[in-house]
Design goal:
The chain is an alpha/beta fold. The protein has a single domain, classed as Inosine-uridine Nucleoside N-ribohydrolase, Chain A, CATH 3.90.245.10. Helices cover 40% and strands 16% of the residues. It contains 14 helices and ten strands. Helix 1 links the parallel strand 1 and strand 2. The longest helix is centred in the C-terminal third of the chain and has 21 residues. It starts with a strand and ends with a helix. The protein binds 2-(4-amino-phenyl)-5-hydroxymethyl-pyrrolidine-3,4-diol (PIR) and calcium ion. The site of 2-(4-amino-phenyl)-5-hydroxymethyl-pyrrolidine-3,4-diol has 15 residues, from helix 1 and helix 7.
């Protein structure tokens, strides 16, 4: 039985890769895609999500637009990494599917409450605004979700500040609520995702597949590589978001350990820091865990298999 997930994302180059991985993997049933303002404004990331859906041939999956703003703070986007569109690089096709009329938070509530308890995994790869709003709309989702596997934070590393990661720091109040809710949360943060580097060999192997989605992913990685080099001085960019999807597909490619995790919402220098207590056996009943090590070879194997499985949707269309 494939694992049912809702991917809550802000595409975003690596979010787009997460979508390709989720749709191309038989271990995953994508029951919905929700968007959240993050890497770019909500209208841009939503448009990008629909464009990726067209490239990947995603059909029969509801897409719902979510929060434009963090819970309390002003909008902050990552334009220098993802460009003016939020998904600079490839030409984006016009979307060919309609958005679900519901707000993402309502969609999450409806979907989780209608499903068998313990069957839906939430996979947030952007700021946690929609998830926090869904918890407020219907607190019972906390007891019904199977688990939350999120890309965000870092135990020992930041990117948007010395100690904070973008997804957490742009909406720290939302993140604090999600980590404290009491459901099982796996933090797939920078400690892990900085091991998922799109090396030249990886990008060449993606291109080699030769299909539309493969070319699209190659162009995404070219832009992302140049941006990460320029902005962060990385030789090869970390492709964060598909790591969370990969953990759902096969948790054995990740080493994760239970640890209490708190989100700093008041620090002068530490706002948005994920404070992970690694001092030693986690207290009984700890429901949060931190991902620390990735089997990068198997990870990229999953990504390549998924892209291969997508085929060439825009070519195969017969209408
Ligand atoms: C990546 C992101 C934001 C800023 C930078 N510098 C790099 C986005 C990615 O989409 C990912 O979800 C997360 N936020 C990594 O911080
Ligand atoms: Ca993201």
């Amino acid at each position: 039985m494939p694992t049912k997930i809702i991917l809550d994302c802000d595409p975003g180059h690596d979010d787009a890769m997460a979508l390709l991985l989720a749709w191309g993997s038989p271990e995953i049933e994508l029951v919905g895609v929700t968007t959240v303002g993050g890497n770019q404004t909500i209208d841009k990331v939503t448009r990008n999500a629909l464009a990726v859906a067209r490239v990947a041939g995603i059909h029969g999956v509801p897409f719902a637009k979510g929060a434009a703003h963090p819970l309390l703070r002003p909008v902050e986007v990552a334009e220098e990494i993802h460009g003016a569109s939020g998904l600079d690089g490839p030409v984006l096709p016009e979307p060919d599917i309609e958005l679900d009329p519901r707000h993402a938070a309502q969609f999450i509530v409806d979907t989780v409450m209608a499903a068998e308890p313990g069957t839906i995994t939430l996979v947030p790869t952007g700021p946690l605004t929609n998830i926090a709003l869904a918890m407020r709309l219907e607190p019972a989702i906390v007891g019904r979700v199977r688990e939350v596997v999120l890309m965000g934070g870092g135990a020992r590393v930041g990117n948007w500040s010395p100690v904070a990661e973008f997804n957490i720091v742009v909406d720290p109040e939302a993140a604090a609520a999600v980590f404290a809710a009491g459901w099982t949360v796996t933090m797939v943060g920078l400690d892990l995702t900085h091991q998922a580097l799109a090396t030249d060999e990886v990008v060449a192997a993606i291109r080699e597949i030769g299909t539309g989605p493969a070319r699209f992913a190659g162009e995404l990685m070219d832009f992302f590589t140049a941006a990460y080099r320029e902005v962060a001085g990385f030789d090869h960019p970390p492709v964060h978001d598909p790591c969370a999807v990969a953990y759902v597909i096969d948790p054995t490619i990740v080493r994760a350990i239970p640890a209490p995790i708190a989100v700093e919402t008041r620090g002068e220098h530490t706002l948005g820091m994920t404070v992970v207590d690694l001092r030693g056996p986690a207290p009984e009943g700890t429901r949060t865990q931190v991902a620390l090590e990735l089997d990068a070879e198997r990870f990229w194997g999953l990504v390549l298999d998924a892209i291969r499985a997508l085929g060439d949707p825009l070519v195969e269309r017969v209408d």
